[in-house]
Specification:
homodimer; five-stranded parallel beta sheet; five-stranded mixed beta sheet
Chain lengths: 248, 248
């Protein structure tokens, strides 16, 4: 019997956004591993072992998943959103890098609806033109690099989807982000704060930069910073597809 | 009877990547509008009128869809991938902007698996760290702006997902893109050419910049340019989550 490992995206929260592909591998799995609240989304059943683990244990979890697959298990590592966007796929490849014997395993990444797509859809289409996707957490990179990327995106007038804007252990990063925005953007630049989109706790607000405050974001919030052309239409926010004659 | 309009993403091609949410609204629709090959993915049935239309008719299609919903229809505009990423959602909001009477309609955007997520998943996790998403078509914006954004992304060492790299009517843009990459990146910078991912015509190659040629891309290809840290592990390509001490 040969095992396999799927690194699967559960989407942002709603079961209606879980792809049939992911649903199917979960139905075949012998083992499901992931961060506690994501594993809690998988229904227990006979023949399936759930392995919830704490946050910040990504490499241990990846190693355990690969070992189970190597031993013949049908293993699914679950991420919320998409597993390839600031989630578990990278951790699995990092572990595989040090274990050539595991590189021939049947490993697949199954995409999911990442938070920025769900948040953008709820808001309208703020990511309808060129955009950047930044992880604002400085747990794994220096703040100076985050700021450099933020300024590069703003300088080229791209919209920006910001993951992990703020947490209890990193209360200041998003305040810095807002300072950079205030230095470089007009006060009516639009920001979307999308919290827990597609869950019962969903909360979405769109405000101009002048009214944005750091405490509008927490670790479940995805923040979208519009480009200079992003605007409101009725209750929606969108970024037009056309840019006419505007360029440095 | 009050009509509604959903702008729905069908994902990159495989039916296993269509979300249940999209499947459900298609089952309730009276009218489905979209580009010919996307409407062809919707099964005909009694009570459903299919309205396929040609490429480059986005605004006419959006207007027709809104008019049908205003008249009480249950209308779905289908895009491939995600409707908010270089697709139909923006066209609908552009039309709504000029028609305040349509702004109170029941309009929803339903996210889908956009091409870059499907391509990245097949390749490994090349978008696992900060990245930019650029539309390389200069149909609706000047090439100078595309180049400015490309250079900004490269200067801040972000990976780049390139949509619409090359078409019969725009044969030169992607050659320019490769020239910019050759000026600014090392020759072993990794590029992923992902064509028609999750369809029977899927073709995926990963090459170093030194071996990349413009004719490796066409209008069905999504190109991912890795960052300086993107590397291979076994048959996969990924961008590590950590950046240690590297910053200008």
């Amino acid at each position: 019997m040969s095992g396999w490992l799927c690194i699967a995206g559960l989407g942002p929260g709603s079961e209606a956004l879980v792809t049939p592909e992911v649903r199917d591998v979960l139905a075949e799995a012998t083992d499901v591993l992931g961060y506690i609240p994501y594993v809690a989304r998988v229904a227990p059943r006979s023949g399936l072992t759930l392995h919830p683990s704490d946050n910040r244990q990504e490499l241990d979890r990846a190693r355990a998943a690969l070992a189970l697959a190597a031993a013949g298990g049908r293993v699914v590592v679950v991420s919320s959103g998409d597993p390839g966007v600031f989630a578990m796929a990278c951790a699995v490849f990092e572990v595989m890098e040090g274990r050539p014997d595991w590189q021939a395993l049947d490993v697949r990444v199954l995409p999911g609806i990442t938070a920025m797509l769900a948040a953008a859809a709820r808001a309208g289409a703020p990511l309808g033109h060129d955009f950047c996707t930044l992880n604002l957490s400085d747990n794994l990179k220096p703040w100076a690099l985050i700021e450099k990327r933020l300024r590069a995106a703003l300088g080229a007038d791209m919209a920006i989807a910001c993951y992990n804007p703020r947490s209890a252990s990193r209360p200041h990063g998003f305040e810095h982000t807002l300072q950079v925005l205030r230095e470089t953007c007009e006060p009516d630049r639009l920001l979307v704060f999308a919290r827990a989109v597609t869950t019962p706790n969903e909360h979405l607000v769109c405000v101009p930069l002048a009214e944005a405050r750091a405490d509008m974001a927490d670790m479940r919030t995805l923040v979208i910073v519009g480009s200079s052309t992003t605007r409101r239409v009725g209750r929606f926010v969108y970024t037009p597809r056309s840019v006419v004659g505007e360029c440095a």
